[in-house]
Amino acid sequence: MALSDGTRSAITYGSAAIVVGALGAASLGWWVPELRRQAVAAPGERIEVAFIDAPVWMAPQDLAPLQEMTAREAGPTAGGREGLLRAKAALERSGWFDEVRQVSRSGFSGIEVDATFAEPAALVVHSNAEHLLDTSCRRMPRSYPVGMGPRLTRILGVAAPPPAHAGSAWSGADVIAGVEMAKLVGVQRWRGQVEAVDVGDFASSGNVALLTTKQSRIIWGRMPGTEAAAEVPSAQKLRYLDMLMSQYGRIDGAGPQSIDLSVDYVGSR
Q1: In the chain, count of helices (H) and strands (E)?
Q2: Candidate CATH numbers 3.40.50, 3.30.420, 3.90.320, 3.30.2000; the one for domain 120-268
Q3: How far apart are CA 259 and CA 266, in angstroms?
Q4: 269 residues of the chain, pLDDT tens digit each
Q5: Cα dihedral across residues 181, 186, 187, 193: positive or negative
Q6: What is the distance between the alpha carbons of residues 255 and 215, in angstroms, rounded to a whole number?
């Protein structure tokens, strides 16, 4: 069950058997080896790690490795401030956060983490996998088999390979264009009808396209804010798609078809 806003999620560390069981359960969802190595508390000590205001999309299996890593790096209560600084640095390197403000002791055996999680924006389809990307075009530490990722806009046709380390920006102006389009699509009432943003033509033309769930291709043009002088502005493109939505219940009309929004006279075929 996903955590609601304001909920403090905690994990308790006791015997080695409990730790091994938690690791086995989490591995069913995803695997981040560097977060799991030696995730063992001091003998006899119970350590609870709570993330303040963890976002609703962070499920328990996503939080568990971060909690394990925090407890391991911070060490027992007697470990002092050095352990808390190690934990803070490890969280900052994890690729899950925009900012880690403070890692502090709470009571006799608790640790609280005050941090802002990075916000997922899209999935980049590359190398037979879907890679989670945040709103700043940084690769987040989670990938999925193609077709198995969460319900986010996919970005197709990206030229550069994924960055080696989570938290690093994915290089290429095509990635920036894809993420900007994904963010724009994500706030529209018809967002569920867009399967992917295609940036395969970006290098040659600077254009991006939307692919709908009914296999229609909507040529958008340049990403919002960078339109050419003769190109239709983004607000006008959105109005046209809203008109199609109101008239047909879909932004691709009867579909499947190709629609060009980049010109004054919108054509379809």
Answers
A1: 7, 13
A2: 3.40.50
A3: 7
A4: 343 444 334 333 333 333 333 333 333 333 344 343 333 444 556 789 999 989 988 888 889 999 999 999 998 765 578 999 999 999 999 999 999 999 999 887 899 999 999 999 999 999 899 999 999 999 999 999 998 999 899 999 999 999 999 999 999 999 999 999 999 999 999 999 999 999 999 999 999 999 999 989 999 999 888 887 778 889 999 999 999 999 999 999 866 678 999 876 555 55
A5: positive
A6: 8
Task: List the one residue out of 252, 121, 269, 236 whose CA is nearest residue 221.
Answer: 236
- The one-letter amino acid code at 115 reads A
At 48, list the tokens.
């609870």
Q: Which amino acid is at 217?
A: R
By C-alpha distance, which of 217, 224, 227 is closest to 264?
Answer: 227
Cα separation, 201 vs 158, in Å, equals: 10
Give the full edge-to-edge strand order of the sheet including 48-51.
Answer: 9-12, 48-51, 110-117, 97-106
CB of 252 closer than 8 Å to CB of 193: yes
For the stretch 183-223, pLDDT in tens is 999 999 999 999 999 999 999 999 999 999 998 999 999 98
CA-CA distance, 174 to 159, in Å (whole number)? 8
What pTM was estimated for this model as a whole? 0.76
Domain residue spans of the chain: 9-117, 120-268
